[in-house]
Design goal:
The chain is α+β, with helices and mostly antiparallel strands and 209 residues long. Helix content is 21%, strand content 41%. Bound molecules: 2-oxoglutaric acid (AKG) and fe (ii) ion. The site of 2-oxoglutaric acid has 10 residues, from strand 7, strand 13 and strand 14. This is Alpha-ketoglutarate-dependent dioxygenase AlkB.
């Protein structure tokens, strides 16, 4: 009786931080040597993390050349290079946990953290692979933690074919691995519904962008 009650209390009072990876990670093989790993509800204390990041991160608006025009990038950004101090200790904990779980398979640590703030359902990221760096030629991994409003991440093979949809919820982890950056593309489409804000944290190895 007593221990059952304690169990339920401890479950709801889960200490803030990443929960276990291990057996709770589900791997989905894709074509062409790509795969994704899914670990829903990975982050305990995601509410407070979201609020802290919203205020602590120096969010930047960017503008980019598109053909003959300069357009606003439809999300706010922040980038933490490998020597930069992350804006929240929970992001360090998450990085350490990812490194413990993936180091052997990845062969190197995750080092950088890119952050995106999707202010509402109109913010988005167009179809792309993370191919600015080594992801264009080598297998690698990009690990994404999602907090705040749920949004869909779409994936489609570059060789053609229909898109897969993964709904990323508050505190969820998705890892794109293998050849995913060069043989597949991903996007966060605008959401028709009036969505609240979402923050995505992307961990990448050195030289992957
Ligand atoms: O918001 C996300 O989860 C994806 C962001 C992304 O694809 C990128 O920044 O390269
Ligand atoms: Fe990306």
């Amino acid at each position: 009786m007593e221990s059952a009650l304690q169990g339920s209390i401890f479950d709801s009072w889960d200490e803030a931080g990443p929960r276990e990876l291990g057996q709770s990670v589900r791997r989905v093989p894709l074509t062409h040597g790509a795969w994704i790993d899914l670990r829903p509800n990975w982050i305990a204390g995601a509410d407070a993390l979201f609020e802290r990041l919203l205020t602590a991160v120096p969010w930047r608006a960017e503008r980019r050349h598109m053909y003959d025009r300069v357009v606003d990038v439809p999300r706010l950004l922040a980038f933490y290079d490998e020597d930069a101090e992350l804006p929240d200790p929970l992001l360090d904990q998450a990085k350490r946990a990812l490194n413990a779980h993936y180091a052997e398979e990845l062969g190197e640590p995750f080092r950088t953290a890119g952050l995106c703030l999707y202010r509402d359902g109109r913010d988005s990221v167009a179809w792309h692979g993370d191919t600015i760096g080594r992801g264009s030629t080598e297998d690698t991994m990009v690990a994404i933690v999602s907090v705040g409003a749920p949004r869909s991440l779409l994936l489609r093979p570059r060789s053609g074919g229909s898109a897969l949809r993964y709904d990323l919820g508050h505190g969820d982890l998705i890892v794109m691995g293998g050849s995913c950056q060069r043989t597949w593309e991903h996007s966060i489409p605008k959401s028709a519904k009036d969505s609240g804000p979402r923050i995505s944290i992307q961990y990448r190895p050195r030289g992957v962008r």
